[in-house]
Each structure stands twice: as structure tokens, then as C-alpha cells.
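Structure ticket #2291
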Amino acid sequence: MLHHRQIAAATRIGMLTREHDSVAAGAEALRQLARALPLDAATLLALDPFTGTHVQVAGIGYTATASQDLAAEFVGTPWYENVVRQELPPSISEDTAGSFRDGWFYAERVRPAGFRDGVTGALRRHGRLVGLVHLSASDAHAYDTDARWLLASVLPALAALADPVPRAGDLEDLAPESAASLVVDGGVIDVPGRERVRALRDPAFHELLRAFADTGGRRLRLLRPAEGAWHRVVLHRHRSGPIAHAVLVVETPTELPYGLSPRELDVLTRAATGQTNQAIAQALYLSPRTVHTHMEHLLRKTGAVSRAEATALAVRDGLLRPAPEQVIRFVER
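Resolution: structure written out below.
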């Protein structure tokens, strides 16, 4: 029977899935596990969806070498296949056949580190294997069936913390029609429950993504056409987890705000960079008078009383269509 400390720890782990910093939340989840189960060391690993390798999200008790061995070498053991097949996390103490204790990983990695028992759970989310959790103890019989069921009960929460693909909580404020994709070094990960971003089919958009990634900024909001329709596009940089360099792209269909025309949007974007009408005219192959007319139209449409107010509105509300070289001027830190 579970005691109140174990129930409290399991509840706390579930609540941690609401946190945006998955690294800090993962570390706290392992500390909560240490209150509920006997353990001397633990590690939470995420499966990098591009390389197929495991990366540590959080760990306690293991040396750096031991953590690396669990991330890199454990998946090459027969015991790993045993782990991913079972609903109930297997433990060394319940290994009646002795297959793990007789293997090289136990003899060369586990036993020399002083551990006599261990349990490993496979982390799955939306039908995908997203990582592993390892617990180790110096006691030879630390993980009985009850302990393993307790660990099994929190595996979904641990999977949410380990999953490098955005968690549902990160996207809960999006409109139902919004598409979302995670982009890493040109590769695209589909976000469960969301369509793939249409703009990603445009090579020019990838240049914009690279420019955003190079700035190290946190967020960029803009307007962009894709497949004959306009969209609000927001680029978010991941700042935690195993693929912290990833960019989450969110795309929502929209009409151009304030009835602006595409050319007026281009003029407004360049004005927001500080360009004069003469410089805008040269860049867009227009006459200065035409640019002046566009500025008059967009002032009237937005209700701004001055060029400065209009450009402030553009930056504040993301009424921008920047070229890659202009991204650094508009990125939010």
C-alpha cells in the first residue's frame, strides 16, 4: 500500500509537467522520486529525435562517466530491449533468470559503481519512445513489485518532461487552426495534434529561420504569406531540454491587419528599421513619392498620428515582414 509520502511525491511529479523549464522540472522530479523510492542515483534521459541518441535531462547521484554510460551504452544491451517491451519497469532484483547480472554492463558498469539493484522505465508519449529513467540503489533488493508499479505510475509525467517535442501545456494558448513544427538545423519534427507549418515548404523561410537562430533571441513575430494566404508566424527558441537550440514555429491563418496591402507592410517593416523614404524607395524599386503615398495610407489605416507611432505599433504587434538581414532588429531577447 502506498503511504502518504509516496502519493505526495507522485502528485508533485505530475504537477511538474506544467513547468516550462524541463531541465529544472526534471531535476525536481528525480528529487521527488528519491522521497518516494529507495535510490542512491537516478537519471532522466531524453531521446534526441534526430540522432537517435539519449541525452541526459537531469541526474542525481551518478558520476559523469556513469551518466554517459547509461545514456550511450545501455541501449546496446539485451536488457534495453527487455525494458522497452514491458509495461512494468523491470529491475535487477526481479531478474530471476539473471540475464542482466550475467551481462557485461552490470559487471563493468553497475557493480563497480557500488549498485546492487536498479530499475529502468521506458518513457512514451503520444505513442513515441521519448526517453528512459534509471534508478539505482546499493541495496540488493530495493525495487520490489510495489516500487516498480509506483515508478510505472509516474512514467507518463516523466515522459512529458523528457520529450523534446513541445508539451501540450506549451501550446495550450494556440488557436485550434494554428500549425506548429519544431525545427533543428533544418530538420523538422511534427508536433502531435498540429499540422506542419506551411511556410516550411518555402526555402526562403528557412533562411529567415537561420537568421533568427543566429541572433540567439527568444522570440520573433511576423506576417508571412504561404500557399496563397497570409499567416501570423511566431518563432520561439527552446531554452531548455536536450535540443535547446531548436526553434518552435507557430503559424496561424490571418488577414493582413488594418487592411494593409502587402506593399504597405513592406514599407512599414523597412520604416521600422529606421530607413528613410529615399532608402525604402531604392530597396523596393519604387519612387520616393510612391513610398510617401504608402506611408500616408498606412498611417490612415492604422490610426497612427505619426511615422514613429506607426513603426512602434508594427514592432509591438508583429506587423512585420522582415528579410533575413533585418531579423536582428526585431527579435525579442
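Closing remark: DSSP finds twelve helices and nine strands in the chain.
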